[in-house]
Amino acid sequence: MKNLPIRSVTARQILDSRGLPTLEADVVLEDGSFGRAMVPSGASTGSHEAVELRDGDKEYFHGKGVTKALHSVNQEIAAAVKGKNAGDQTSLDEAMIRLDGTANKSKLGANAILSVSMAASRAAAASLKMPLYRYLRETFNLKLDSWILPTPMLNVINGGKHADSGLNIQEFMLVPTEASSFSEALRMASETYQTLKKILVSRNLSIGVGDEGGFAPHIPTHEEVLTLLSDAIAQAGYKEKIKIALDSAASEFYQNDAYIFESKKLSAKEMTARYKSWLEKYELISLEDPLSEDDWAGWKELTSELGHKCKIIGDDIFVTNPQRLSRGIKENVANSILIKLNQIGTLTETVETVLKAQKAGFSCVISHRSGETEDPYIADLTVALNAGAIKSGAPCRSERLAKYNQLIRIEEELGKQAAYSGFTPFRMKAAA
Question: Class of the 6-129 domain?
């Protein structure tokens, strides 16, 4: 391991895709190598996520300022990591975790710690003159003998907290499973997205977009949306080649032990029955957060009922936390996990969670947040880990396309070394 001492760390407050403050950190090494990283922010957040430190001053960015986190980076973290080896990512991250000293990074802020964690890895990669994805694979000593370009999951209809469409379900996604390459998959999805736009226009429905670039039409029922997407896929010429996936973000419509869904009170069992009917009718490929983050009993029953039919992806229930994932594995809850760097707060813990999931037979989906930046970091991370799938929103808005475009570049760099993941991350294990 080469010693790459850190010379300086500097952070600044920038704006994310929603026009709200977030952090950007610069790390400079003694040899002059430079790394920069920007931290995303969620709207629909799990209550068990590491703490995103905000100022709370209503007179300054309506309480959303991050000057406290900025101070954490420029003062305490900068002093603590000066001279440390950026090439030893695990030791660097552990030093910042110890400096914070809390279980959920509430002292310094997960956003503060993550900005430096990511920027340091970029600086180290620059020093070694390596693409970030190759550096990440090497620095975590990942013994992988292939390069996999991920299957994109594109949120083309926005609901929940991502839009004012009135839909309970937060994301309706297109998943191009049958393509020869990532770039072809992205083309198929883009063409279907544009076909969907034409259908919405023809029906006098809104083509305004939500936080993640998906359309936000006011459609009375979720089943009508699923039918609309099926029509768009067929009209674009990709029937059987593009599948539909859902992110319910069900914690957002869970109140007083019931799911308030399409103005009705439903139990976990009734929600499961609803999903089952959609699986059969629309051949859904995955269900993300179909139930609330602490409804462990409901999750277990839903996984038992539907887990052999499609991927059941845990986001808010796991929050990229290895301890919560361990409980899910032990209790047979879900069979896939969503991975978000800022839910846990360091690169090392993120990788640890992915490796734990993969060892247990869970598939992994590396994900953006609704409040994004132009930083394409997760594209490189996904390829480094052979994660297999990525969520970065619709093929619309530059902060979303930054990730997809970076994957196109990586695919070009890797050439014949790379293979497209396609349907693989969604393949179910054969019954014993």
Answer: alpha beta
